Amino acid sequence: MTEPAYGWLESIRRDWDARALENPRAYINWSDVPDNDEAFFQSGKVDYDQYVKPFLRRMQFDPGDKSVLEIGCGVGRIARWMSQDFARYVGVDVSPEMIRRASANHLPRATFQTVSGGDLTGIASASMDFVFSFAVFQHVPNRDAIFNYFAETARVLKPGGIFRLHMKGLASASLGRWALEAGLAGEGRPGSGSRVKWPFVRIRKLDTWQGSSVSPSRAIAQCSADGLEVVETAGRWTVMMWIGGKKPQREADGVPRSSARVANTKKAAL
Ligand SMILES: C[S@@+](CC[C@H](N)C(=O)[O-])C[C@H]1O[C@@H](n2cnc3c(N)ncnc32)[C@H](O)[C@@H]1O
Fold it and tell me: Is 129 in the pocket of ligand 1 (CB under 6 A)?
């Protein structure tokens, strides 16, 4: 597959490489987590326990003999824990420096590789049981690149494989390199504050830190168009939206590609 000409890919790689060289912990983690390795990796366990394990249980998925691909793995904050449960872990990231640092941890059963920032070239079709991504698409300024990752998720998943992808699930309108965003605030990471939601509107300059939003209906429609069945969503209209589902065993089991089932997906706990 040729690298998509999204324009942003060079700057995404350059900026994240610079962040990895400066202090990856500071750019990867939330500001309330102390800036040391122990707290950093422990936060990866908290996120894995909170965002992945309950989903695997809901999907009746036993990771013991399965493979997982993490898109935007960073320096392996979550890989450290995920690779203990899965038979095979593959982490990909746009930043060679992030990948170099993740590889230096020599995690058993884990491999890491650099990708273009817009596709999963190098990952074989129908080779993965689970595709996961957290705190990555929210930084991607080009929505086409995010959507191409959905299509790539469908490509690399085995039939019957499952996915859980995090993104900024706000309503948005782009004005060149600016975006008008509207959504619900107050939905932080579990345990990090109030669960009360209130509406907000804001203008953001799109860059490799402030990425694009994908509205819930658009995310579900795009997954459906790619042949993925969305079975649950969480955090709609917030910066913590999750889309979870599976690749049907056979095309006939899937969602009709012409009509996205926006209304029929279940809402899940975060
Ligand atoms: C905030 S960090 C999160 C890292 C990891 N997911 C975690 O939770 O520890 C964002 C990561 O996404 C990577 N990234 C950003 N844009 C990307 C893209 N278009 N494709 C792949 N990785 C990307 C960055 O290099 C960085 O490692």
Answer: no
Residues 14-26 pLDDT 10s:
999 999 999 999 9
pLDDT in tens, 107-161: 999 999 999 999 999 999 999 999 999 999 999 999 999 999 999 999 999 999 9
Instruction: Say how far apart CA 270 and CA 93 lie, in whole Å.
Output: 24
DSSP conformation letters of 202-259: EEEE-SSSS-----HHHHHHHHHHTTPEEEEEESTTSTTEEEEEE--SSGGGS--TTS
Q: What residues does each domain of the chain span?
A: 9-267
CATH 3.40.630.30 fits 9-267, yes or no: no
Which residues are CB-contacts of 249 (< 8 A; sequence separation ≥ 6)?
159, 160
Q: Note whether 238 and 183 are within 8 A (CB).
A: yes
Question: How many whole angstroms separate alpha carbon 72 and alpha carbon 93?
Answer: 4
Choose which residue among 134, 139, 140, 189 to substitute to test ligand 1 binding: the one with the highest number of ligand atoms within 8 A of its C-beta: 139
Q: Tell which one of 8, 93, 166, 207 to mutate to probe ligand 1, the residue whose CB is within 8 A of the most ligand atoms.
A: 93
Q: How much is the pTM? A: 0.91
CA angle 150, 152, 156 (to 5 degrees): 125
